[in-house]
Amino acid sequence: MGMGEIKENEATVNEITLENVEEQPVVYKEYSTEYLVSAVEAILFSIGESVSVDRLAKALEMETKKLSKQMEEVLEIYNQSDRGIKMVELENAYQLCTRNEYYDVLTKVVCTPKKPNLTDVLLETLSIVAYKQPITRPEIEAIRGVSCAHAINKLMEYGLVDEVGRLDAPGRPILFGTTEEFLRSFGVASTEELPMISPDKIEDFKKEAQEEANEITLGLDNES
Question: How far is 46 from 48, CA to CA, in rounded Å?
Answer without folding.
Answer: 6
